[in-house]
Amino acid sequence: MRSIVDFASEDVSLDRAAILRSQGVPDEAELSENFEKIYIKATELFRELAESKGIIAGITTSRFEEVFRGEGLNEKRNPVEEIYRNSSYLALFAVTLGPVLSSRVTELFNAGDYAPGYMLDSVSSYAADKLAYLAAEHLEAELAGGEAPAVSCRVLSYSPGYCGWHISGQKKLFEALYPEEIGITLNESCLMTPIKSVSGVLIAGPGEIHEFVNSYPFCNTCAARSCIERMRSL
Protein backbone atom coordinates (compact mmCIF):
# COMPACT_ATOMS: atom_id res chain seq x y z
CA MET A 1 0.00 0.00 0.00
CA ARG A 2 1.24 3.44 -0.94
CA SER A 3 -1.00 6.48 -0.81
CA ILE A 4 -0.89 10.27 -0.78
CA VAL A 5 -3.35 11.85 1.62
CA ASP A 6 -4.62 15.42 1.60
CA PHE A 7 -5.66 16.61 5.05
CA ALA A 8 -8.16 19.44 5.42
CA SER A 9 -7.08 22.20 7.81
CA GLU A 10 -10.38 21.71 9.61
CA ASP A 11 -9.35 18.11 10.40
CA VAL A 12 -6.37 19.36 12.43
CA SER A 13 -7.86 20.23 15.80
CA LEU A 14 -5.81 22.75 17.78
CA ASP A 15 -5.56 22.35 21.55
CA ARG A 16 -5.16 25.92 22.83
CA ALA A 17 -4.02 24.87 26.31
CA ALA A 18 -1.41 22.47 24.91
CA ILE A 19 -0.06 25.08 22.49
CA LEU A 20 0.27 27.72 25.21
CA ARG A 21 1.76 25.13 27.57
CA SER A 22 4.51 24.53 25.00
CA GLN A 23 5.38 28.22 25.46
CA GLY A 24 5.56 27.84 29.23
CA VAL A 25 2.16 29.41 29.88
CA PRO A 26 0.35 27.67 32.79
CA ASP A 27 -3.24 26.54 32.20
CA GLU A 28 -4.53 28.87 34.92
CA ALA A 29 -2.68 31.97 33.68
CA GLU A 30 -4.69 35.11 32.95
CA LEU A 31 -3.76 36.34 29.49
CA SER A 32 -3.86 39.87 28.19
CA GLU A 33 -6.25 40.89 25.43
CA ASN A 34 -3.30 41.47 23.11
CA PHE A 35 -1.96 37.97 23.81
CA GLU A 36 -5.35 36.48 22.96
CA LYS A 37 -5.42 38.45 19.71
CA ILE A 38 -1.97 37.13 18.77
CA TYR A 39 -3.13 33.56 19.40
CA ILE A 40 -6.33 33.99 17.38
CA LYS A 41 -4.40 35.56 14.48
CA ALA A 42 -1.92 32.67 14.51
CA THR A 43 -4.70 30.09 14.29
CA GLU A 44 -6.32 32.05 11.45
CA LEU A 45 -3.02 32.12 9.54
CA PHE A 46 -2.64 28.39 10.08
CA ARG A 47 -6.08 27.69 8.62
CA GLU A 48 -5.37 30.01 5.69
CA LEU A 49 -1.84 28.97 4.77
CA ALA A 50 -1.45 25.30 5.71
CA GLU A 51 -1.22 22.87 2.79
CA SER A 52 -1.47 19.67 4.79
CA LYS A 53 -0.65 16.41 3.08
CA GLY A 54 1.07 13.14 3.74
CA ILE A 55 2.45 10.02 2.16
CA ILE A 56 2.10 6.53 3.64
CA ALA A 57 3.72 3.37 2.29
CA GLY A 58 3.60 -0.14 3.74
CA ILE A 59 6.91 -1.86 4.37
CA THR A 60 7.90 -5.39 5.34
CA THR A 61 9.55 -6.07 8.69
CA SER A 62 12.77 -7.22 7.02
CA ARG A 63 12.94 -4.11 4.82
CA PHE A 64 12.18 -1.83 7.74
CA GLU A 65 14.96 -3.49 9.70
CA GLU A 66 17.38 -2.12 7.08
CA VAL A 67 15.78 1.33 7.25
CA PHE A 68 15.81 1.38 11.03
CA ARG A 69 19.43 0.23 11.23
CA GLY A 70 20.38 3.31 9.21
CA GLU A 71 24.02 4.19 9.78
CA GLY A 72 24.32 2.01 12.86
CA LEU A 73 24.03 4.88 15.33
CA ASN A 74 20.86 3.83 17.18
CA GLU A 75 20.97 3.20 20.91
CA LYS A 76 21.73 -0.48 21.59
CA ARG A 77 18.51 -0.83 23.59
CA ASN A 78 15.54 1.20 22.42
CA PRO A 79 11.76 0.80 22.55
CA VAL A 80 11.18 1.25 18.81
CA GLU A 81 13.07 -1.93 17.91
CA GLU A 82 11.26 -3.90 20.59
CA ILE A 83 7.89 -2.57 19.43
CA TYR A 84 8.22 -3.00 15.67
CA ARG A 85 9.35 -6.63 16.03
CA ASN A 86 5.98 -7.38 17.68
CA SER A 87 3.88 -5.46 15.14
CA SER A 88 1.25 -6.76 12.77
CA TYR A 89 1.85 -4.09 10.09
CA LEU A 90 4.42 -1.37 9.37
CA ALA A 91 4.24 1.69 7.13
CA LEU A 92 6.66 4.54 6.54
CA PHE A 93 5.11 8.00 6.54
CA ALA A 94 5.85 11.67 6.08
CA VAL A 95 3.47 14.57 6.61
CA THR A 96 3.88 18.28 6.07
CA LEU A 97 2.05 21.58 6.49
CA GLY A 98 3.63 22.84 3.27
CA PRO A 99 6.15 25.58 2.45
CA VAL A 100 3.91 28.66 2.65
CA LEU A 101 3.19 28.39 6.37
CA SER A 102 6.84 27.78 7.23
CA SER A 103 7.84 30.77 5.12
CA ARG A 104 5.40 33.03 6.96
CA VAL A 105 6.95 32.08 10.30
CA THR A 106 10.38 33.02 8.93
CA GLU A 107 9.04 36.28 7.50
CA LEU A 108 7.58 37.31 10.86
CA PHE A 109 10.85 36.68 12.68
CA ASN A 110 12.87 38.47 9.99
CA ALA A 111 10.56 41.47 10.26
CA GLY A 112 11.05 41.62 14.03
CA ASP A 113 7.48 40.51 14.78
CA TYR A 114 8.71 38.06 17.39
CA ALA A 115 5.53 37.52 19.40
CA PRO A 116 3.34 36.70 16.35
CA GLY A 117 6.18 34.66 14.85
CA TYR A 118 6.70 32.64 18.01
CA MET A 119 2.98 32.01 18.36
CA LEU A 120 2.57 30.91 14.73
CA ASP A 121 5.62 28.67 15.15
CA SER A 122 4.05 27.04 18.22
CA VAL A 123 0.69 26.55 16.49
CA SER A 124 2.42 25.07 13.45
CA SER A 125 4.60 22.70 15.49
CA TYR A 126 1.54 21.40 17.33
CA ALA A 127 -0.36 21.01 14.05
CA ALA A 128 2.53 19.10 12.42
CA ASP A 129 2.56 16.63 15.31
CA LYS A 130 -1.22 16.36 15.00
CA LEU A 131 -0.82 15.38 11.34
CA ALA A 132 1.24 12.38 12.45
CA TYR A 133 -1.71 11.30 14.63
CA LEU A 134 -4.06 11.76 11.65
CA ALA A 135 -1.76 9.61 9.50
CA ALA A 136 -1.98 6.89 12.16
CA GLU A 137 -5.77 7.16 12.20
CA HIS A 138 -5.81 6.96 8.39
CA LEU A 139 -3.77 3.75 8.46
CA GLU A 140 -6.02 2.27 11.15
CA ALA A 141 -9.02 2.89 8.90
CA GLU A 142 -7.22 1.42 5.88
CA LEU A 143 -6.30 -1.73 7.77
CA ALA A 144 -9.89 -2.08 8.97
CA GLY A 145 -11.15 -1.93 5.38
CA GLY A 146 -13.54 0.91 6.05
CA GLU A 147 -14.96 -0.66 9.19
CA ALA A 148 -14.39 0.66 12.69
CA PRO A 149 -10.82 -0.28 13.70
CA ALA A 150 -10.60 -3.22 16.07
CA VAL A 151 -9.97 -2.19 19.66
CA SER A 152 -7.04 -4.61 19.72
CA CYS A 153 -5.30 -2.84 16.80
CA ARG A 154 -3.62 0.47 17.55
CA VAL A 155 -1.35 2.47 15.30
CA LEU A 156 1.23 4.87 16.72
CA SER A 157 3.98 6.83 14.99
CA TYR A 158 7.69 6.81 15.83
CA SER A 159 10.27 9.17 14.35
CA PRO A 160 14.05 9.35 13.94
CA GLY A 161 15.56 11.50 16.65
CA TYR A 162 13.36 10.04 19.37
CA CYS A 163 13.30 6.93 21.58
CA GLY A 164 16.81 5.83 20.65
CA TRP A 165 16.28 5.96 16.87
CA HIS A 166 19.15 8.15 15.65
CA ILE A 167 18.25 11.19 13.56
CA SER A 168 20.52 9.90 10.76
CA GLY A 169 17.86 7.25 10.20
CA GLN A 170 16.11 9.89 8.12
CA LYS A 171 18.44 9.12 5.23
CA LYS A 172 17.38 5.49 4.78
CA LEU A 173 13.77 6.43 5.50
CA PHE A 174 13.79 9.00 2.68
CA GLU A 175 15.45 6.55 0.30
CA ALA A 176 12.68 4.03 0.93
CA LEU A 177 9.70 6.41 1.10
CA TYR A 178 10.68 9.20 -1.33
CA PRO A 179 8.63 11.99 0.33
CA GLU A 180 10.00 14.41 -2.27
CA GLU A 181 6.83 13.37 -4.10
CA ILE A 182 4.88 15.64 -1.74
CA GLY A 183 7.56 18.33 -1.57
CA ILE A 184 9.57 17.23 1.50
CA THR A 185 13.35 17.21 1.17
CA LEU A 186 16.20 16.38 3.53
CA ASN A 187 19.43 18.32 4.04
CA GLU A 188 22.87 17.09 5.12
CA SER A 189 21.96 17.61 8.78
CA CYS A 190 18.89 15.38 8.36
CA LEU A 191 16.53 18.34 8.82
CA MET A 192 13.43 18.43 6.65
CA THR A 193 12.14 21.19 4.41
CA PRO A 194 9.44 22.44 4.88
CA ILE A 195 10.48 22.62 8.51
CA LYS A 196 6.93 21.85 9.74
CA SER A 197 7.09 18.23 8.63
CA VAL A 198 7.18 14.91 10.48
CA SER A 199 8.41 11.54 9.21
CA GLY A 200 8.84 8.09 10.65
CA VAL A 201 7.14 4.72 10.88
CA LEU A 202 3.56 3.82 11.73
CA ILE A 203 3.48 0.67 13.82
CA ALA A 204 0.22 -1.29 14.02
CA GLY A 205 -0.54 -3.99 16.54
CA PRO A 206 -2.20 -4.73 19.86
CA GLY A 207 -2.14 -1.72 22.15
CA GLU A 208 0.11 -3.41 24.68
CA ILE A 209 3.06 -3.59 22.28
CA HIS A 210 3.35 0.20 22.51
CA GLU A 211 3.69 0.17 26.28
CA PHE A 212 7.15 0.43 27.81
CA VAL A 213 8.83 1.81 30.90
CA ASN A 214 10.65 5.02 29.99
CA SER A 215 13.76 4.13 31.96
CA TYR A 216 16.20 3.88 29.05
CA PRO A 217 19.41 5.91 29.57
CA PHE A 218 18.41 8.45 26.89
CA CYS A 219 15.03 9.09 28.57
CA ASN A 220 16.80 11.35 31.10
CA THR A 221 17.75 13.81 28.36
CA CYS A 222 14.40 13.75 26.54
CA ALA A 223 12.55 17.06 26.77
CA ALA A 224 9.41 15.87 24.95
CA ARG A 225 8.34 12.96 27.17
CA SER A 226 5.43 12.53 24.74
CA CYS A 227 5.56 8.75 25.22
CA ILE A 228 3.75 9.11 28.55
CA GLU A 229 0.71 10.81 27.01
CA ARG A 230 0.72 8.42 24.06
CA MET A 231 0.63 5.39 26.31
CA ARG A 232 -2.18 6.94 28.33
CA SER A 233 -4.19 7.22 25.10
CA LEU A 234 -4.08 3.44 24.68
Question: Would you mind describing this structure in some detail?
Answer:
- The longest helix has 30 residues, at 114-143.
- The protein has 234 residues and is α+β, with helices and mostly antiparallel strands.
- Helix 2 (33-49) packs across helix 6 (114-143), helix 3 (61-69) packs across helix 7 (169-177) and helix 5 packs antiparallel against helix 6 (114-143).
- Helices cover 41% and strands 16% of the residues.
- The strands form two sheets. The protein has a five-stranded antiparallel β-sheet with strand order 1-2-3-7-4, sandwiched between helices. It has a two-stranded antiparallel ribbon with strand order 5-6.
- It is built from eight helices and seven strands.
- It has a single domain, classed as NADH Oxidase (3-Layer(aba) Sandwich).
- The chain has helices at residues 16-21, 33-49, 61-69, 79-84, 99-110, 114-143, 169-177, 226-233; strands at residues 2-6, 53-58, 89-96, 154-158, 185-186, 192-193, 197-205.
